[in-house]
Write a structure and sequence with these properties.
elongated, 3 helices, 71 residues, 3 strands, three-stranded antiparallel beta sheet, 49% helix, mainly alpha
């Protein structure tokens, strides 16, 4: 999902794997400890519907707002 987008290009979610791959870069860019960024990623991860349908995903909009609030 790092190189693709939804049909509308407005999907606010990325995979948990993609978020984890970017965590160190985000921590460095925002001058935050990596464990704090990883914790925020976990906090903004949605689980599959009924625990079965779909995949866990990270809401990038809410994650970015939480990261902005750490200043």
């Amino acid at each position: 999902d790092a190189v693709t987008a939804s049909g509308s290009g407005l999907d606010p979610h990325i995979s948990v794997r993609n978020a984890a791959l970017q965590a160190a870069r985000v921590a460095k860019a925002r001058n935050l400890p990596l464990p704090q960024v990883e914790s925020l990623i976990t906090a903004h991860t949605s689980v599959p519907t009924f625990g079965l349908l779909g995949e866990a995903r990270v809401n990038v909009v809410s994650l970015n707002l939480a990261l902005d609030a750490t200043k």
